[in-house]
C-alpha cells in the first residue's frame, strides 16, 4: 500500500545536520504518526513520504524552506521572564518554551535581565539544510473521525 492523502503514517526517523551529526532520533521509541495530506508534517518530509510503502527506509536532505523555515534575522523579542517555561534560572543559550496565540513555541534565550529576557524566536534548526533518515513502520487508511479532526489518533498521534 503506497502512502497517499488521508492515510495515517507511522515512521521512525533520525535527523542529521550538515556535517552528518545526529541531532534527534526516535530510535527505540514509539514511531511518529501523522495524517498524510493534512499539513501535520514538515512539507519536505511529507513530500518524501508520498508513494512510499511500509518497510521502506530512505534518506532525504531538505532545504530550510521545507523543514523549520528560513531564519528571520529580525527574530528577537523581549519577553517577561515569567513567560519563559522550562527552568527557574535563565542564562543565554538556554532553550525555553513560550505560549503564543499560535500555541507553544521554542525560543532561545539571548540576554537575561532582572524582569525581562531577549529571546530569538527562530526555531533552533531554522535556516539549516537537514537530512532525515526515515523508515515507514506502518500506513493505513484514516478513520472518518481522524479525517474530520485533521490528525492521527492513537500511538504516536493525538490523544483526546
**CATH architectural category of the largest domain:** Roll
Report the β-strand fraction as a percent range: 35-45%
The third-level CATH topology of the largest domain is Chitinase A, domain 3
* Gyration radius, rounded: 18 Å
Number of strands: 9
Helix content: under 10%
Number of domains: 2
How many helix segments? 2
Mean pLDDT: 94
Report on the biggest sheet. 5 strands, antiparallel
Q: Class of the largest domain in CATH? A: Alpha Beta
Outline, from the CA principal axes?
globular
Class of secondary structure makeup:
mainly beta
Low-pLDDT windows of residues: none
Give the helices and strands as they follow along the chain.
EEEHEEEEEEH
Q: What is the terminal-to-terminal distance?
A: 28 Å
Structure notes:
It is a single chain. This protein has two domains: 7-68 and 126-149, Chitinase A, domain 3; 76-120, Beta Barrel (Thrombin, subunit H). It contains two helices and nine strands, in the order βββαββββββα. The chain has helices at 43-49, 144-149; strands spanning 7-16, 22-25, 32-35, 57-62, 76-80, 95-100, 103-112, 116-120, 130-141. It has 160 residues and is mainly beta. Strand 7 and strand 8 (116-120) form a beta hairpin. Strands 1, 2, 3, 4 and 9 form a five-stranded antiparallel beta sheet that branches. A four-stranded antiparallel beta sheet has the order 5-8-7-6, with no helix packed on it. Keywords: Chaperone, Cytoplasm, Isomerase, Rotamase. Residues 4-79 form the PPIase FKBP-type domain. One of its GO terms (molecular function) is peptidyl-prolyl cis-trans isomerase activity. It is found in: Cytoplasm. Its EC number is 5.2.1.8.
Amino acid at each position: 500500500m503506497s502512502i497517499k492523502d488521508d492515510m495515517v503514517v507511522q515512521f521512525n526517523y533520525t535527523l542529521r545536520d550538515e556535517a552528518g551529526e545526529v541531532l534527534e532520533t526516535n530510535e527505540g521509541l514509539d514511531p511518529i504518526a501523522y495524517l498524510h495530506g493534512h499539513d501535520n508534517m514538515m512539507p519536505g518530509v511529507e513530500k518524501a513520504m508520498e508513494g512510499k510503502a511500509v518497510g521502506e527506509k530512505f534518506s532525504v536532505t531538505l532545504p530550510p524552506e521545507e523543514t523549520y523555515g528560513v531564519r528571520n534575522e529580525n527574530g528577537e523579542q523581549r519577553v517577561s521572564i515569567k513567560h519563559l517555561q522550562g527552568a527557574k534560572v535563565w542564562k543565554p543559550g538556554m532553550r525555553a518554551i513560550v505560549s503564543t496565540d499560535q500555541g507553544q513555541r521554542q525560543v532561545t534565550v539571548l540576554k537575561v535581565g532582572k524582569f525581562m529576557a531577549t529571546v530569538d524566536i527562530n526555531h533552533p534548526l531554522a535556516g539549516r539544510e537537514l537530512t532525515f533518515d526515515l523508515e515507514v513502520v506502518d500506513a493505513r487508511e484514516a478513520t472518518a473521525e481522524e479525517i474530520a479532526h485533521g490528525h492521527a489518533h492513537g500511538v504516536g498521534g493525538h490523544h483526546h
